[in-house]
Design brief:
By secondary structure, this protein is of the alpha/beta class. 27% of the residues lie in helices and 30% in strands. It has helices at residues 58-69, 84-87, 146-149, 154-157, 168-176, 187-196, 223-236, 239-248, and strands at 15-16, 35-40, 43-44, 48-51, 54-56, 73-78, 95-100, 110-112, 117-126, 141-145, 161-165, 182-186, 201-218. The strands form two sheets. Strands 2, 6, 7, 8, 9, 10, 11, 12 and 13 form a nine-stranded mixed β-sheet that branches. Strands 1-5-4-3 form a four-stranded antiparallel β-sheet.
Length: 252
């Protein structure tokens, strides 16, 4: 991970990570369980990251709100992203929130919630270039990260001359050296760039991508319906927007 998000002013939302699993924490996703055990990869800032023995991030704040509305006590269980589809069958984990894309080949094995996060991209340019609108960027050279390009609409990309880069450092250097006129990058990194150096970069536009994240849970337990109901409530009453803006706000 190239950029670290320190989670300023979020001490009240940090959650302890379970160091040992005793019997009182093990649930079967039933209404009688006292805990909602949520698997999270804590190496995924700003969605989840460690601050000492505590974990913070967007996914953690969302999990906190879900547990509250299910009238459960939140218990965070540290997992690795790559083992999510195996770990969900662990009896000590009820759901996993960790930036997981929907894999149609896994739908027979796990339940996917409705999408809880839609990835947005931002287009940035150098202030020195005096670009101020999305229309000025048409037919310009635009840099994107190679692993993110597949999440952008091909029709959108056809409006630009696209250069792909392996990592964010190379992408930013290409912009600084005028190898490209602008960059398209996912919001978590884009927000970090703007906040770190607002004098150098101009925000051009925000673009919805094709990437969505889902919560996964054990198959056919009834948890899917509960989670989807809570997600809808959180979005409808403005709570989701508040959590989102704490981590991904674009005040430009």
């Amino acid at each position: 991970m190239l950029f670290y998000f320190p989670g300023c002013n979020k001490e009240n939302k940090e959650v302890d990570i379970t160091k040992s699993q005793d019997d009182s924490l093990v649930t079967s996703t039933t209404s009688l369980a006292n805990y909602l055990n949520v698997g999270v990869d804590v190496t995924f800032p700003p969605f989840a990251f460690l601050m000492g023995s505590k974990v913070s991030g967007f996914d953690v704040d969302l999990a906190t709100e879900i547990a509250k509305r299910l009238e459960k006590e939140l218990n965070i269980v540290q997992i690795s992203y790559n083992e999510a589809f195996n770990k969900i069958n662990d009896p000590s984990i009820d759901i996993i929130i960790s930036g997981i894309d929907k894999d149609t080949q896994k739908e027979s094995l796990v339940d996917f919630s409705d999408p809880y996060y839609i990835s947005y991209f931002v287009m940035l340019a150098l202030k020195a270039k005096n670009y101020n609108s999305e229309y000025e960027m048409i037919n310009k050279k635009i840099g994107v990260l190679k692993f993110e390009a597949e999440n952008l609409n091909p029709d959108l990309l056809s409006s630009y001359y696209i250069n792909q880069y392996e990592d964010a450092v190379s992408l930013i250097n290409a912009l600084k050296s005028s190898e490209v006129d602008g960059i398209l990058i996912s919001i978590p990194i884009g927000v970090k760039i703007l906040k770190d150096d607002p004098e150098s970069y101009t925000f051009i536009q925000k673009i919805e991508s094709q990437e969505k994240y889902y919560i996964i849970m054990k198959k056919d337990t009834g948890m899917k319906e509960k989670i989807n109901k809570v997600l809808k409530e959180i979005k409808d009453d403005g709570t989701f927007e508040k959590i989102y803006n704490e981590w991904f706000s674009l005040d430009y």
